[in-house]
Amino acid sequence: ENLKEIIRITNSNADHVVKKLKEILKTYPVHPEATILLAETLSAQKNYSEAIEEYHKLIREKPEFTDKAIDGAKEIIRLFPDQFLAREFLVENYLEMDMFDLAIAEGKELLNIYPDSSDWIIGKYKDFAKKESALRECVGIAYLMKGDYFNANLEAEKLVQSDPKKVSGLILLGEVSLR
How far is CA 16 from CA 47, 55, 88, in A? Predict the structure, then answer.
């Protein structure tokens, strides 16, 4: 907040603020407050992809700021719901933090907006599905979107096998059988 108070950001000076913050980060590359402010300023300028890259840098160097970075990504999605990199960022962090319910919800949303992200979803979720079987739902949906009914069915069966009362597995089985 101190840096934010010092640097008053307006539409007319945002480019100058971005330039100054980048200069600060050249000297102090792991300055969390400057990185967050840079990401927020970039987001205000609708440079969402660049803002997400700053959040990636932040948590790579200072993982204790993951919650702040996640909040920033959520704000970007609030402003621009179709922002792929922000949704991807949330998925990756939710998976790493074992926040599987949020990862499932975000993964489904990503697949709804970007059906072409199915390969990415399969790659990200497959290993985590060994740890949390509920993630197989997203993997199965991704296979369905690719038209790979065999693997979609396998994921649905594994999901039902892990918990026969799991409604999402039964729904997925039904969707596969309808195709």
Answer: 15, 20, 29
Nearest by Cα to 35 from 5, 8, 62, 74: 62
Residue 111, number of CB atoms within 10 A of its CB:
20
Instruction: Read off the pLDDT of residues 13-53 as tens digits, 9 standing for 90 and up.
Output: 667 777 887 877 788 877 888 889 889 989 988 999 999 99
- pLDDT interval class at 132 (50, 70, 90): very high
Burial track 152-165 (b if 16+ CB lie within 10 A, e otherwise): bbbbbbebbeeeee
| Other C-beta atoms lying within 10 Å of the C-beta of residue 86 | 27
Choice among 106-120, 140-154, 160-174 with the minimum mean pLDDT: 160-174
Question: Residue 171 in 3-state DSSP?
Answer: helix
- Judge whether 148 and 140 are in contact, CB under 8 Å: no
Asked if 126 and 143 touch (Cβ cutoff 8 Å), the reply is no
Q: At 13, phi and psi to the nearest 5?
A: -115, 10
Q: At a CB cut-off of 8 Å and minimum separation 6, what does 81 contact?
A: 113
- 166: tokens are 């799991």
Q: Is the CB of residue 104 less than 8 Å from the CB of residue 138? A: yes
